[in-house]
Amino acid sequence: MLNKTNARAIAHKAICSIVVNKKSLSDDIFPVDYDDLSYAKSLTFGSIRFYHHLNDVITPRLKRPLEKKNLDIHCLLILGAYQLIHSDTPIHAAINETVGVAEIIGKPWAKGFINAILRDIDRDRDIIENTKHYSHPSWLIKKLKQDHPKNFQEILIENNKRAPMTIRVHPSIQRDDYQKRLQEINIFSQTSTIAPQALILKDAISVTKLPGFEDGSCYVQDTSAQLAAQLISPKIGELILDACSAPGGKATHLAELCPKANIIALDSDDQRLSKVQENLDRFKNHNITIQQGDARDQEWWNGKLFDKILLDAPCSSTGVIRRHPDIKLLKKPKDISQITKTQSLILGNLWELLKPGGLLLYATCSVLKDENVHQISQFLDKFKDAKNEKITLTWGNGDIGRQQLPHKEYDGFYYAKLIKSH
User: Fold this and answer.
1) What angle do CA 28, 58, 324 make, to 5 degrees?
2) Terminal alpha carbon distance of the chain
3) What is the pTM of this model?
4) What phi and psi values does residue 266 have, to the nearest 5 degrees?
5) Closest C-alpha among 261, 307, 309, 256 to residue 284
6) C-alpha gyration radius of the chain
7) 55-85 residue pLDDT tens
């Protein structure tokens, strides 16, 4: 079994990977040779989620900034401060066992220093906990205030919570029946009001505990993401492109809603396409063809126009920060301008592949207007054969596309339906 001191050492190494080496939480930053990584992962996610707050607590307590070679000590202070302020770890364990990690990483000289800083933080805990802090980079707070003046605080608060685990129940299974099967094994859930196949689990669990998971009974997918296939509404015989498809959640959803539609799952990344293949094998989908290719060009295309295109566009992922808190450390304002250029390029390229009368559904998991409503407005100005079709469902807001903000039951997401005139 993994003892918690080692769990702290593993968490510390992962935090350093993100803060110092700019790796993402989705990179392989955790060792695979431990049975139980859950404690190490919860420490890592928590420390990164509240990094900006913790950094502002630690920095004034340092007599001088740490040298570059000792940034790992800064990461260790972040880990200790997280346990003291944002977790239910007993104080003595939060301090003593974090101090112990200095020995493990070969820096025993730092033990007294770390101990003193953490004890100082503990003394001021009441003041710290009662001081409002959004724990986001200042550029992002400014952007959210600008884009969502009435809701920015809700977004920031929601971003610092843990995301719910949501599953999509296969349409061949009654959702209520599957919910009962889960309840029988003490897995509790609630049905979504906006996605007919979605069950929101009370607690995150291992997929191995989900009845029939290996045989395709369900798929782990956020409620917001489940709306894509609904909006595409696949029909028999249609040729549908799922661009930027990996890992294949939306492609398999389209396939299960209409097994007689022909779906092309396109992605440029060979490794990510292997994930699509794994999902196809599990679901036994026979109406999806995997295609490696770049959505920015047409080299992969056979010249046959598509009836419908789903573009799950590359984006800042600012609607799913609670799932990927490292976004707050890794994304910079210049990245947003690069992302919007890429989105515009893909949109223009794929538009040429759509039949007259066809539908292109544009989707992002972003809450930033530059990537969403502004992007689509510019597209409509540029392409005169494009028409915005109003999305009239009960969720989200907006006339040019529909924006959902992060909510306790679903992620932040944007959809726009574009129809090509005949």
Assistant:
1) 30
2) 64
3) 0.94
4) -105, 135
5) 256
6) 23
7) 999 999 998 889 999 999 999 999 999 999 9
Handedness of CA 203, 207, 209, 212 (dihedral sign): positive
By C-alpha distance, which of 14, 13, 10, 17 is closest to 33? 10
The residues carrying an active-site annotation are 365
CA distances from 148 to 25, 222, 227, 263, 354 (A): 27, 22, 22, 36, 33
* Helix (H) / strand (E) containing 265: strand 262-267
Asked if 315 and 339 count as a contact pair (C-beta separation under 8 A), the reply is yes
Domains of the chain: 4-129 (1.10.940.10), 165-220 (3.30.70.1170), 227-420 (3.40.50.150)
From CA 139, how far away is CA 124, in angstroms rounded? 28
SS3 per-residue string spanning 101-128? HHHHCCCHHHHHHHHHHHHHHHHCHHHH
CA distance 91 to 83: 8
Q: What is the mean pLDDT of residues 332-359?
A: 97
